[in-house]
Specification:
The protein is mainly α. It has 15 helices and no strands. The relative contact order is 0.10.
């Protein structure tokens, strides 16, 4: 019995020495946020560049965009390894792992990369610098474990993610009002939490009407917090939250959760308006569904989807009604609704002076 206890202590000490900590924060917040950055630096920025090239008819921009989109899997995997503080050899080996998991995962490739990259990174960390031939052993273990897991699991992970995403999109098409509220509120809340809504939307392949509702919810959080906190944070806060992230308010939300009500209620209104009134779809890259107004990525995604629909013949042209819906849902309604709700909560004492004040603003 004592031998078992000693071995358990020894293994725990080994994991600690290797900086392997089984933590929900490390895997579901740090790694997922890093994965979103990898997606942004490859698939998303590539889509923006190629879309710009298509509109301006500049072939070199289209080519550059396609190059960036082509390395989405490796970019995600390396970003995850970086978040897990993997040694250089492990991190570089993740290029092959990300490529395998993303390509074999199909539509649910990002989720496959997320799961497999975490496992193979930790396995690589276990063997790193444990032998005199580290230059061979570490890449061998990392790449082989990741590639074998990809071949064995990625197609099934991808199918599961795709099925779940398709279920959400089907439900939104069937019940646009109820699901418009649900998707808008949930994805918007996730955007403000220290979790990556972009990575989740990408992993589930969330597009179509559900993607439009997600854009509405994320925009409501970002624009809502930016506008309703203007008197405390001025122009700096308006830009950093409206075009950056509403996650900046998390510290204030912990102190007073009631400040979260105005943008969340705004999302509950703009979601069904997006799905039922304007039938706003996000048929661009799924990651854009979870970006909101961050760099206007959500809006660029909607616009890219319009172009895709025109190209495949499912949409005749971009209309004034389309533009009105996008602007209203993304900017005007969130600003007005959040401000009105915030004024009410200030009057009844639920939101106090400087409750929305950001540090260094």
């Amino acid at each position: 019995m004592s031998d078992i206890v000693e071995k358990e202590k020894g293994f725990k000490a080994f994991l600690l020495r290797k900086n392997i900590v089984f933590s929900a924060k490390k895997y579901f917040i740090d790694a997922m946020s890093a994965m979103a950055n990898g997606l942004f630096a490859s698939l998303l920025i590539g889509t923006i560049i190629s879309t710009l090239g298509q509109r301006l008819n500049i072939q070199v921009l289209i080519d550059i965009g396609n190059f960036a989109k082509g390395v989405a899997g490796p970019a995600m995997a390396v970003s995850i390894a970086y978040a897990l503080q993997a040694p250089p050899l492990v991190m570089f080996s993740m290029l092959a792992v990300g490529s395998a998991a993303n390509s074999l995962g199909g539509a649910g490739g990002p989720l496959a990369v997320f799961i497999i990259a975490i496992i193979s990174s930790e396995l690589g960390k276990m063997v790193s610098k444990e032998t005199k031939v580290d230059i061979l052993v570490t890449p061998l273990v990392t790449i082989c474990s990741g590639a074998l897991l990809s071949m064995a699991c990625a197609p099934y992970i991808g199918k599961a993610a795709s099925l779940f995403g398709n279920l959400i999109m089907w439900a939104t098409e069937l019940h646009p009002f109820a699901m418009g509220i649900l998707v808008s509120v949930i994805v918007g809340v996730v955007l403000t939490l220290p979790i990556s809504s972009a990575a989740i939307c990408a992993a589930l392949g969330l597009t179509g009407l559900a993607g439009g509702a997600a854009v509405a919810g994320c925009s409501a959080q970002m624009v809502g917090f930016a506008v309703m906190s203007y008197r405390e944070n001025k122009l700096g806060g308006l830009v950093s939250q409206g075009l950056g992230t509403s996650m900046l308010q998390m510290g204030n939300i912990v102190k007073n959760p009631k400040i979260w009500l105005p943008p969340t209620l705004a999302a509950a209104v703009t979601g069904p308006i997006a799905t039922c009134v304007f039938r706003m779809r996000m048929d661009g890259e799924a990651i854009a569904s979870g970006m909101g107004t961050c760099g206007l990525v959500g809006q660029i995604g909607v616009y890219s989807g319009w172009l895709n629909s025109i190209a495949d013949g499912s949409k005749a042209a971009i209309t004034a009604f389309d533009w009105i819906g996008l602007i209203l849902v993304s900017f005007i309604l969130p600003a007005i609704l959040s401000t009105v709700f915030c004024i009410i909560l200030r009057k009844i004492g639920w939101i106090g002076e400087n409750d929305l004040k950001l540090e260094n603003m």
